[in-house]
Design a protein that fits this description.
73% of the residues lie in helices and 3% in strands. With 308 residues, it is mostly helical. It has one domain. Strands 1-2 form a two-stranded antiparallel sheet. Helix 1 packs antiparallel against helix 10 and helix 6 crosses helix 8. The radius of gyration is 20 Å and the shape is globular. The model has no long low-confidence stretch (mean pLDDT 82).
């Protein structure tokens, strides 16, 4: 297997793994588990897995003092993105939520333009317009009623949080940090969000409480472990390797399999509704993202004799 085939294979595995979020999360919701409990287990198991992998590879866990505050903030932002996405599943179809989430590359472009004054070209604005139209089509995708405004707001905030994380990591002291160490500590600091949210005070007893739920069905522990393994650890590791083999642009294009995987699972496993309007919205969003990350390369294919 040559390097390019390896990169494409690993990138596809990464995207498909992340798209498995609804497959493991929705049965836990049906069991009555809250998003906070679910994500506490997900992050906890992921920390154990990543830590074990780093220890086996002899990687360092050390942090520099100047990295600490940036890493804590980025970990919480990354964690907030997970929480907002999982909360959105309570208001809208998981496949549609995962598709709207994939608008984050467009939000990254907006942040870079507004905050860092990096000018966006005509192609970028065309992509943003296409994505907005696609999201509008998804918002009124159901034949009987529009999608929940709360659900749409939650998943857009999730996408924005992830975009802030991507920009922040690349525009801070964390830029040159080892990716495994960065991921491990981002998960550690991110898990603190759920510790705080699950902790309460019993006024009568004058003590702290911890509202962590336990699955009623023992088999659902498998779902919790799979949430940590597939959309977290496997997705992160294979994506990093894919970028090494074929570059970030090609790996990002393969990320289009994320919402497609989630949508297929939603339709064929959970019986979610798929209408022509939703299909058109999905096509517009994925086309916008593909043009954004590979527009120049795609246009060069139509340039005679490779002229620029």
């Amino acid at each position: 297997m040559n390097i390019k085939v390896k990169g494409v294979t690993l990138g596809s595995i990464a995207a498909a793994s992340y798209g498995l979020n609804p497959l493991f999360a929705l049965p836990l919701y049906a069991d009555g588990m809250t998003a906070d409990s679910m994500l506490f287990y997900r992050y906890g198991f992921a920390i154990l897995m990543m830590g074990t992998m780093m220890w086996a590879q002899g990687k360092s866990f050390r942090l520099r003092l100047r990295q600490l505050l940036s890493l804590a903030f980025m970990g919480l932002v990354f964690s907030a993105s997970s929480l907002l996405l999982f909360l959105s599943y309570q208001y809208m179809d998981a496949g549609i939520a995962s598709t709207i989430l994939f608008a984050y590359p467009l939000l990254v472009a907006l942040i870079m333009w507004v905050v860092f004054k990096e000018r966006a070209g005509l192609l970028t604005w065309l992509c943003i317009l296409m994505a907005l139209v696609g999201i509008a089509l998804l918002y009124r995708g159901k034949p009987d009623a529009p999608l929940s405004a709360v659900g749409v707001a939650l998943v857009l905030l999730s996408s924005l949080s992830y975009a802030v994380y991507i920009v922040g990591v690349n525009r801070s002291v964390l830029k040159k940090m080892d990716s495994a160490t960065l991921t491990f500590w981002a998960l550690v600091f991110g898990s603190m969000l759920y510790v705080v949210r699950l902790t309460g005070i019993d006024a009568e007893a004058g003590s702290f409480t911890f509202a962590l739920q336990v699955p009623h069905n023992p088999w659902l522990w498998v779902n919790l472990v799979c949430l940590a393994l597939f959309p977290t650890i496997i997705s992160l590791v294979t994506m990093n390797l894919s970028i090494h083999y074929i570059g970030s642009t090609s790996a990002a294009i393969l990320g289009a399999l994320e919402p497609i995987t989630a949508l297929v699972i939603g339709v064929f496993v959970f019986g979610e509704v798929l209408t022509p309007r939703i299909v058109l919205g999905i096509v517009l969003i994925l086309s916008a993202v593909t043009l954004l990350v590979a527009g120049k390369k795609l246009l060069s294919l139509f340039t005679p004799f490779g002229r620029k």
